[in-house]
Known about the structure:
Structural class: alpha+beta
CATH topology of the largest domain: Heat Shock Protein 90
Strand content: 15-25%
Distance between the termini: 58 Å
Number of domains: 3
Bound molecules: adenosine-5'-diphosphate
CATH architecture of the largest domain: 2-Layer Sandwich
CATH superfamily of the largest domain: Histidine kinase-like ATPase, C-terminal domain
Number of helices: 10
Order of helices and strands: HHEEHEEEHHHEHEEHEEHHEE
Radius of gyration: 51 Å
Amino acid sequence: MSGHSIGFRLTAWYFSVLAAGLAIFSVVAWFAMRTSLYYAVDDELRDRVRGVASFMNLQTASLSIPEIRDEFREHSVLGPGGDLFQVCDEQGQWLYRSVPLESNNVAIQLPRQLSKPRFETMEVERHLLRFYSQTIVNAGKIYTVQVAALMDEGLEALARFRAMLLWAAPLLLIAASAGGYWLATRALAPVDEVSLAAQRISIESLTERLHVPHTGDQLQRLTETLNAMFSRLEASVQRMKQFTADASHELRAPISLIRTTAEVAVQRSRPAEEYLQALNEILQETERTTQVIDSLMLLARADSGTAGLERSPTDARSVAGEAIEQGEKLAHQKGVGFAATLPDHPVVILADGDALRRALLILIDNAVKYTPAGGCVNVELEGQNGFVIASVRDTGIGIAPQDLARIFDRFWRADKVRSREAGGTGLGLSIAEWIVAMHEGSIEVESELGKGSVFRVRVPGAPSRQLD
Ligand code: ADP
């Protein structure tokens, strides 16, 4: 059934539930009618026995048996149900026997055999009769009174009712299912329209949106959700295009430079120093290109989820210590002051030491890169409310407020020339952000243009006993 349309499946469910409901209803209705039929007949039979008993009380005390029979004969034609009854005494002597019962010799139980009133149904002359036998006491003697009623009419009505149910229920079921199918396909038609419209939107026409019906129902929510999804897709496709353009530019620029340098060098013969200088330039550009490719590869693996980190309990001081050592050298080379503060007790985190050191070094390297000589860089590590926070503060050029949201974008640089001259690729912060995110942490930035910046890495701490 899973291959069928929703309309078909809904109808199939509807059909099954309705079929079960109708079947139960029909059986219950038939049994209820049959029970009420027997109930009415039995009630009437009991009444008639009561009638016979009171008649006997009044009439028979002073009469002989033939007289009683005559009285009964007279009485029986007056009462309802005709003269279908018979009465016998303890010795089995008939007090009265109506003609149809006598001619068919319908058996009766003697008073001593009948411990309690008894109903039974029997066929007499191809008619179904309901019998009721009860003992009565009259003038110190016990009699069995047996009365009968014709069931033909009631049973015929019951049979007609059953036939009606057997015909009407399937017809009703078919009609209701056809109606259900029509309703289901009608209700689902707009969903088909939405899916057709959504199919028409391709990667080239991601700016298009579906028409949103303002019905306040699931359909409106569905189209709104799809439109929101298209917006997200459009934004990420845009980012991908931008990234591809930036990446090709970043790779083409150094390769053109390598090529031009080599071409100029081989145009004519030159002194050995000039070749050496050209080769040095080529080497520098090759190193830069390798760096960009390495960073791109790491980010590509990060995106595809294949660049896993191996985290184990680590003292954050040792991770920060190594990054600080390298950062200090960079600061020293550039003439930037450098200071670091580490706690005197272990601060344990679940970390991939190499990766986290790389992230911290990116921040320290940036701080040094974007701080002019004479400025200073300050690195601090501290544990706070279950988190370990590493802050890298500089007194450098700072970041404009409108740029703060973009600095983590791939290849984004406030000043391309400055970044390039300082050896930047525009990928450092993207990599640092990914590494910190893999440690379930975050990076916050505060910055003021011309005054300096603070980058704070916050990762959850781990219990210090884990270090052992
Ligand atoms: P880059 O290789 O250019 O440094 P990043 O991704 O590390 O690339 O940084 C992106 C941009 O963010 C930088 O080009 C720079 O404009 C800005 N930036 C990052 N760190 C700092 C900082 N400490 N001070 C000023 N600007 C910064």
